[in-house]
Amino acid sequence: MDAPEAQKTLMKALEDFTSRENWDDFFKIRSDKPFEWYGEWSNLAEPLAQHCALHSSNGQLELDILIPGCGNSELSEKLYDAGFKRITNIDFSKVVIGNMLRKYLRTRPGMIWRVMDMTNMQFSDGTFDVVLDKGGLDALMEPKLGPKLGIQFLSEVKRVLRKGGKYVCISLVQTHVIELLFSTFRCGWKVTVHPILQHASLVSSYHPFLVVVLKDDSSDVHLVRASIDSTSPKYNELQVQGLFETIAKENKLRKQHTPGEDLLNDLKDLEIGAKDGMKQLLPGRRMNIMLGEHGISRFNYRAVIMDSYERFGPFSYSCGVFLVPKARANEWIFSSEEGQWQIVENAKAGRLIMVFLDEYHSCIGLEAVQKDLSPLVGGLAPEKNENGSKIPYMMASDGVVKRTIVQEVVSPLTGRIIVEDVCTENSESDNLSLSTKNEIFRRLVFERCPGLIQSEALLKKSESLRKDEKMKKAIDYKHHLKSKKKKNRRIGDSGVSAMQEPKANLHVDHYYLASLYHGAMITGFGLILSKLENWILSKMLIRTVVIGLGAGLLPMFLHKRMPFLQIEAVELDPIVANLAKEFFGFIEDERMKLHIGDGVKMVDEMAKISKSTGLHDISLTNSIESEFSQANAETSIADVHTSFTMGHESNILIEDRKGVHVLIIDVDSDDLSTGLSCPHSSFVEESFLRNAKESLCIDGILILNLVSRSATVHKMVISRMETVFEELFSLEIEEDVNKILFALPKKSCISTDGIVEGVARLVKLLESSSPRGNGPNIEDFARKIRCVK
Length: 789
Known about the structure:
This protein is α/β, with parallel strands linked by helices and 789 residues long. It contains 27 helices and 27 strands.
């Protein structure tokens, strides 16, 4: 088979590293040709010898070595030839084990080859001195599948290692992988991290690292050590920054260790770490723990055990379980220690076990979750649990009264996508376009980010139905057919569940913004409002490019509220675009164009065109002028133009108007290992930012949605944008982790008062183009904008 065909098979395997069938197909094609995912022996020999004592001057070394997920790597062969004769290789692919047996049976007879699942090994406890894992943990920790297989594997590693043994993990140290590894090996383990100097791996632009874990004969907690030069140009900058931040976060936790601190990973660690015992209540004790045991429970659970303070009494229960749904796990009251103690006080339980659910648990239902948890939490109850009385389960509501799945699709690019309609307990909001009490919302959810609602739209009844309801209300009132209570109901509140409304009678309200950060992004138009007014007065369409369509709600809001914009939306995934059209009312017309493609490449092309020929603004056509007039029945476009009497220049040179006026970046990332949830790391590379600046007209603006819990990543992105752009502003949304960045190609010298004034005029502009005369409350955001550069 030629190289291209082999590469296709490789890519198929990459779709799911946990698929036995994919690996069997791959190894049938590779046959006995070695495939070294994370480096050749020449790259590994020195770091293994230096940091793992895996070397021999002469003779046979009496170490029992296990290589899980061995594949057809030459690693075993090289170790054998270096003097390590007691090597056991396991892989769940019968094909590769058969191939390796035929290859080495005669030449290296001491090696053992077995078909075995690395997450369920058939070895006795304490069998091996070394478990040498080359990419196995990485393969199991597919973001779409969650940590379950990784947890099972590491549990097996802990079991089969002897005291004083080592787990040697060759990994790309992605954040979700290294966090699990660190949390698993806390009590009684020494962890060090070392570089493997070579080119990036075959499966990523990241470099492999060596993580060495020593099984210490104690219950002590040791700090994680790293021998890495963070300034070396040989490393991927984002990768190393993420690794150092994860190590710092872990060490901060380990430094705080005292008996009973939240450092426990499973029930076995609990026996060691909880030195005061778990049968007695210890007021104020709080510890994190991973619940789950192979053969007993189907799932693993992240939990916090908290023993109530005496002042919280009297207690109704000696022990209780409190379930937190995935959608609410990041809320302050559930994620912070202070908030958790408030839950404990209200629960009236002597000991509260707070269990955080994820997307896997939601698939089996609450009854099944309780059944799965019962044998795990039963052993955590204190002795005062009256005669083994039943432990009560409590749960935090996710705020959804009713949920209906409208559509489910699987995209090769995005994975499983869900469109759902929900009715919430209290949907009223003070800072959105209009009151939304007792309404239905349509949501777009990506399974790869189950705790994040990608887009949320308000569903409203059609205008014809509203008129019929108003007429019926008037007739009912006239004939006194309604009680006083019914008279006071708001229009549209029929007493029938909103979810029972026929879907054909509902449509997406594009005058409404459900996301706070969308309102914050629109605030950026206020930074260039003087120029915006002049462009409108000059009868030009303002070219606006939105990269990241989602459900199309932000582009459609701009389309409705700002009819002087020429909008181009860019979406990488055509399936997402189809969902936006079919279920969220996204439409294309002469002012709204959709491009299916890579936003990075599009900006690159726009920059090239801008450099070579320049782009000129489009004159406002008669049809657009007519649309603007229809959107504002009482005010013509001429009246709107003449209302802009701020004394700014009325004529703009043609070269000042080339390129894009407004560039909006609102895309999520499918690689959370970079520390970025939004945007993808390629959108904050300095090369992209320079292209973005080049594609903008001189008075334009770049608006970027930044989502990251990493202070290091924040600092890096800000630094790059400061380097490229002449002026930079930021807006932090207190209610969320979003930070909106506004970058200008030239100095504007706009003051805080000027920003507030500009946004106030923007609000009037939004209201003038709305049939409701009602825009999002963005003036509060204006006061929070800070100048960075």
